[in-house]
Design a protein that fits this description.
The protein is built from 13 helices and 16 strands. The protein is of the alpha+beta class. Strands 1, 2, 3, 4, 5, 6, 14, 15 and 16 form a 9-stranded mixed sheet that branches. The radius of gyration is 23 Å and the shape is elongated. The structure holds (2S)-amino(hydroxy)ethanoic acid and manganese (II) ion (2 copies).
């Protein structure tokens, strides 16, 4: 089995084909979860699974998978995979690499006619990127998603409802998608690093030790609409002036007190929204990340306290609304060692590192031993059309995933 390798040209061709679905003129891709482009990507994936002679499965949360069944129907399942959905105008490798390399690993094992004592299942999880709810599909599979999470869908219940109808899923189905832990062996995910540490250190494979916790809120700064010409500057209750002051102060707070934690305000909506009206209301997306829950608690309190203070100082009202969150997670030592062994046998340099990107693996670690491996991102760029990973790194990652899975098959050692 040591000499087994994936079919590199087939994987690269799959990545190219999938990248055309929702492809953007600047070489990026836009397949936000539950969008028509996402539906097209899912249909394409189903075709590839069936063309490979693998069993296609879709659960009640819309998680898709390819299954290579063991001869023994009572066998447990070794899971791998990632996600097909993307951020708006994102890159061609975030999620796609892990989902398609997992499919390629199953195809390779099937073609080698290896009879394993476990079912192998390559997943593609619903809405990893949190278009509606962070890690929606993997948290549903792990049984940690709640109806409150669905109520807090980032695009609101109406758009969530339309998206669910597009996928043919229901809230009840999503909340019933939990798998039994005793049926599972482990979960392993291949992903691009989305940062620059591997590239900077000349290392081929990143072995993830832990994954960041993420929290998010909608902040609503409320002032008073007024005439942009006649209202005296010192009497204005300008919601955007306050929100802008908060963004600036939040940056400084996190940089000075919570590094390496991070904060981001990725969306802002101004009402009424006209050149000549002083903004009455601003809705601001606040996201914060840190390595542990206690640090996140401290950071969240400090940021929400800052928002209150800035609102007061600008004579504004403030409303906060939790939006989505996912809990930080430590990776399983046995799986980290299996990744390191696979990389070493393939002659690849590897290093352990933390992930400040969120991943399905952190959701899966709630239900089964989970681990994750990275390949380098050129210039550390991701969530951008410029996201790129060299073909040899893509194939190194896929072969390391293949041999990690074989390493984790019970009795294979
Ligand atoms: O936002 C993230 O970290 C991930 O790409 N969903
Ligand atoms: Mn991802
Ligand atoms: Mn992403």
């Amino acid at each position: 089995m040591r000499m087994l390798r994936i079919n590199g040209s087939r994987l690269l061709e799959d990545l190219k084909e999938l990248g055309r679905i929702g492809g953007t003129p600047d070489g990026g891709v836009s397949r936000p979860a539950m969008s028509p482009a996402d539906v097209a990507g899912r249909e394409w994936y189903r075709g590839r699974v069936e063309a490979a002679g693998l069993h296609f499965r879709e659960d009640s949360a819309g998680n898709l998978s390819a299954v290579l069944a063991a001869d023994d129907p009572t066998a447990r399942t070794l899971l791998t995979g990632s996600h097909l959905d993307t951020v708006p105008n994102g890159g061609r490798f975030d999620g796609a690499l892990g989902a398609l390399a997992a499919l390629e690993a199953l195809r390779t094992i099937r073609e080698a006619d290896l009879r394993l004592p476990v079912h192998l299942e390559a997943m593609s999880f619903t809405d990893e990127e949190g278009e509606m709810q962070d890690l929606l599909g993997s948290r549903a599979l792990a049984g940690t998603l709640t109806s409150r999470d669905l109520d807090q869908a980032r695009r609101g219940r109406e758009e969530l409802g339309a998206g669910m109808r597009r996928l043919g899923i229901t809230p009840q189905g999503i909340l019933a998608a939990r798998r039994e832990p005793q049926d599972l062996v482990a979960f392993v995910e291949l992903h691009i690093e989305q940062g620059a540490r591997l590239e900077a250190t000349g290392v081929d494979i990143g072995v993830v030790t832990s994954i960041v916790g993420i929290r998010s809120h909608w902040l609503r700064f409320v002032g008073q609409a007024a005439h942009a010409g006649t209202a005296p500057m010192d009497e204005r209750r300008d919601a955007l002036w306050g929100a802008a002051a908060f963004v600036r102060d939040a940056w400084e707070l996190v940089m000075s007190r919570f590094s390496p934690g991070v904060v981001n305000c990725g969306q802002i909506h101004v009402q009424p929204g006209a050149f000549n009206i002083v903004p009455a209301e601003v809705r601001l997306a606040l996201e914060l990340r840190h390595g542990t829950e206690p640090l996140l608690d401290e950071m969240e309190d400090a940021l929400l306290g800052l928002a209150e203070e800035v609102a007061r100082g600008h004579h504004l009202a403030l409303e906060t609304e939790p939006a989505a969150q996912c809990i930080s997670a430590s990776m399983n030592e046995t799986i980290m060692e299996a990744i390191e062994k696979a990389a070493t046998e393939l002659g690849l340099r590897h290093m352990r590192l933390m992930s400040f990107a969120g991943h399905d693996t952190q959701a899966m670690s709630a239900i089964t031993p989970s681990g994750m491996l990275f390949v380098p991102s050129v210039d550390g760029i991701s969530h951008s059309p410029s996201e790129f990973t060299r073909p040899e790194d893509l194939l190194n990652g896929a072969n390391t995933l293949l041999h990690t899975l074989l390493e984790l098959v019970p009795g294979s050692g």
